[in-house]
């Protein structure tokens, strides 16, 4: 989608520090990391939020989780644990209106989330 920050990053119009890329998904390091490991996993197709995901998109979502597992291993947080977050809408703290999964690790997180 035009004028979507994460679509521009996903199609390479805006540079990012990439952690993983294939035909459907880009993962890149957050520019304001909230943990020692903080990667964003973004589909190359635009979805405004997780509410746009339909049955036909289940394979994509599952693929994004697969990438999260792979990166958690590669970045050394799979044993100690990590957090996957999909913020949605204003109350959910979604800052960019494009579906993305945060992979956060390298420190301990509290629960419930603040
Ligand atoms: Zn977008």
In short:
By secondary structure, this protein is of the alpha+beta class. 20% of the residues lie in helices and 22% in strands. The protein is built from 2 helices and 5 strands; from the N terminus they run αβββαββ.
Structure explained in plain terms:
- With 114 residues, this protein is of the alpha+beta class.
- The chain is built from two helices and five strands.
- Strands 1-2-3-5-4 form a five-stranded antiparallel beta sheet.
- The longest helix is centred in the middle third of the chain and has 17 residues.
- The mean pLDDT is 96.
- The structure holds zinc ion.
- The site of zinc ion has 6 residues, from helix 1.
What is the domain tally? 1
For the largest beta sheet, what order do the strands appear in spatially? 1-2-3-5-4
Which sheet architecture does the biggest sheet show? 5 strands, antiparallel
Mean pLDDT: 96
Tally of helical segments: 2
**Which fold name is given in CATH as the topology?**
HIT family, subunit A
**What is the H-and-E element order?**
HEEEHEE
Which compounds are bound in this model? zinc ion
| Proportion in β-strands | 15-25%
Which structural category fits the helices and strands? alpha+beta
Using only CA atoms, what is the Rg?
Answer: 14 Å
Global shape: globular
Helix content: 10-25%
Relevant terms:
single chain, 114 residues, alpha+beta, HIT family, subunit A, 5-stranded antiparallel sheet, 2 helices, 5 strands, 22% strand, globular, binds zinc ion
Architecture blueprint of SSEs:
Elements: H1 5-10, E1 18-21, E2 25-29, E3 37-43, H2 58-74, E4 82-85, E5 101-105
């Amino acid at each position: 989608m035009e004028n979507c920050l994460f679509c521009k990053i996903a199609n390479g119009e805006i540079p990012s520090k990439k952690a993983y890329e294939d035909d459907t998904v880009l993962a890149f390091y957050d520019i304001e990391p909230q943990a020692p490991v903080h990667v964003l996993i973004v589909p190359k197709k635009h979805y405004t939020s997780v509410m746009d995901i339909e049955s036909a998109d289940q394979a994509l979502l599952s693929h994004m989780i697969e990438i999260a597992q792979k990166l958690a291993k590669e970045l050394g947080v799979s044993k100690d644990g990590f957090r996957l977050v999909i913020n949605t809408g204003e109350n959910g703290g979604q800052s960019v209106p494009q579906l993305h999964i945060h992979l956060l690790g390298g420190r301990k997180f509290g629960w419930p989330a603040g």
